[in-house]
Specification:
- It is a single chain.
- This protein is of the alpha/beta class and 292 residues long.
- It has two domains: 1-109, 3-Layer(aba) Sandwich (Rossmann fold), CATH 3.40.50.1580; 116-292, 3-Layer(aba) Sandwich (Rossmann fold), CATH 3.40.50.
- 26% of the residues lie in helices and 29% in strands.
- It is built from seven helices and 14 strands.
- It has helices at 38-45, 81-96, 153-165, 182-185, 220-226, 241-251, 274-289; strands at residues 31-35, 50-57, 60-67, 70-76, 97-98, 103-104, 112-121, 131-139, 176-179, 193-199, 228-229, 232-238, 254-264, 269-270.
- A five-stranded mixed barrel has the order 7-12-10-8-13.
- The radius of gyration is 19 Å and the shape is globular.
- The relative contact order is 0.19.
Length: 292
């Protein structure tokens, strides 16, 4: 892209920071941890040896600092792929757009973006308080249909198998799928379950929960749990992973999503201490991330 990006398209505030995150390019590390909850940012950064900056605008909180010689930023995204669209585009802008000229830099930076979040298991064999690494993000929202992207042959085959086995409501979601970063995934093997993570556009009916609103697709959970293709199974679902993997593919960043399992939907169990499970994930995740 060799033209200037207009003020209406990339909004830079009066301190030279990108609009939603309120972070300047020099205030962001190239290794980034994303969390949903703004309060969880401090729960991560308290393990940093030093913190060089804290920034906040709306639900977007960013802390940048060091563990040893490893510079890290932790950023809250809020809930849902609509927020992921904002956060990942602005992270990329901070790394790859010159804020003075408003031009894309000639030499692009590939960020490492690792989500540490929570999720519900869709297999009886995955207990609450365990950890799942998302081998793939499968979106039941529609975010990525607004972007041009290329799937690999293996991704196309897996998605076709999903369409053949899982019935979705006509006129609803058009599923899409992306694989995790292999270079990041290799570091998270021992002590982690792995499988396909389904990303839903809501917490209640889109995840099969019934309070007072009836479901249009009451068999969806059973279909997701029963899906199988070669060695692939759907392990869990949540609300951000497919957007991270999808936009990461479009913008050429290395992305990985890791979840603490706070509910098992098949056993109908919820963690007795979800906060402790998240803390354990943060501690284990940071130990690995700091060494990458």
């Amino acid at each position: 892209m060799d033209k200037r990006i207009a003020e209406s398209e990339l909004i830079i505030n009066n301190r030279g920071a990108v609009y939603h995150l309120d972070v300047r390019p020099d205030e962001l590390a190239h290794t980034i941890i994303t969390v949903g909850d703004p309060d969880r940012v401090g729960a991560v950064s308290k393990y940093f040896d030093t913190i060089e900056g804290k920034f906040q605008h709306r639900e977007f909180v960013t802390h940048t600092g060091y563990i040893g010689k490893k510079r890290l930023s932790v950023v809250s995204t809020g809930i849902g792929t609509d927020n992921i669209d904002i956060v990942l585009n602005e992270l990329d802008a901070l790394a790859n757009i010159d804020f003075n000229t408003r031009m894309v830099k000639p030499d692009l930076t590939s960020l490492q973006i690792i989500r540490l979040g929570t999720s519900g298991a869709l297999q009886e064999s995955i207990p609450v308080d365990s950890f799942v690494v998302s081998s793939h993000g499968l979106g039941l929202d529609n975010l990525m249909h607004y972007y041009a992207f290329e799937n690999t042959t293996a991704e196309k085959q897996l998605l076709e198998a999903f369409r053949g086995q899982v019935s979705l409501i006509h006129g609803g979601a058009g599923p899409y799928l992306f694989e995790a970063s292999a270079s990041l995934h290799q570091h998270f093997q021992t002590g982690f379950h792995t499988g396909i993570t389904v990303t839903c556009p809501g917490f209640y009916a889109p995840q099969g929960r019934v309070l007072r609103g009836a479901l249009s697709n009451p068999h969806l959970i059973d279909d997701l749990t029963g899906f199988s293709y070669e060695s692939h199974r759907i392990t869990n679902f949540e609300m951000e992973t497919s957007g991270i993997y999808g936009i990461g593919r479009v913008l050429k960043h290395e992305c990985l999503s890791i979840s603490a399992i706070v509910a098992n939907r098949i056993r109908q169990e919820f963690s007795k201490d979800g906060g402790a499970a998240v803390t354990a994930l943060i501690e284990k995740g940071l130990e690995i991330i700091a060494a990458i």
